[in-house]
């Protein structure tokens, strides 16, 4: 009994993943901590590659990736010497939506901001797709007039007071947990 309690106290405390606030990765990181019964926090970065640097230099930490992240394969294979996948799970994303500023007509949309992963959805509305680092960042680009519309999450659209033009619904998504090879079962 005592060793189990000590094991829990040494469990992973920090999940490094894709930000800004409101990403599906943030939601997945919080869910993973809850499901593992681990007290911890989710730290957000502009890219998973940036987050990975912090995993390598921070005690009790993991990287949470999304299976459709465009360069997840590079993160895995370029870090085989010291990183491994230690867990994975499926979680429904926030509803994915096509959104624009409140008084924008769909016919006026020329540039659509999108993370590369759901870019196919953006191409349904415009041939001019501006890539950004996350779905939440796409909403920010739209809200700040850097783009006319965006593929984003319902959460990010609501936070930026965007009008939802098309709701694609939730997407059952696989998320991966990557830890240093010195981690066994989610703890050091």
From TrEMBL:
Gene Ontology BP terms: L-phenylalanine biosynthetic process
GO MF annotations in UniProt: prephenate dehydratase activity
Pfam families in the cross-refs: PDT
Classification via InterPro entries: Preph_deHydtase (IPR001086)
Domain Prephenate dehydratase residues, every copy: 16-166
Coiled coil segments of this chain: none
Name this protein carries in UniProt: Prephenate dehydratase domain-containing protein
Natural source organism: Bacillus licheniformis (strain ATCC 14580 / DSM 13 / JCM 2505 / CCUG 7422 / NBRC 12200 / NCIMB 9375 / NCTC 10341 / NRRL NRS-1264 / Gibson 46)
Gene for this chain: ywfB
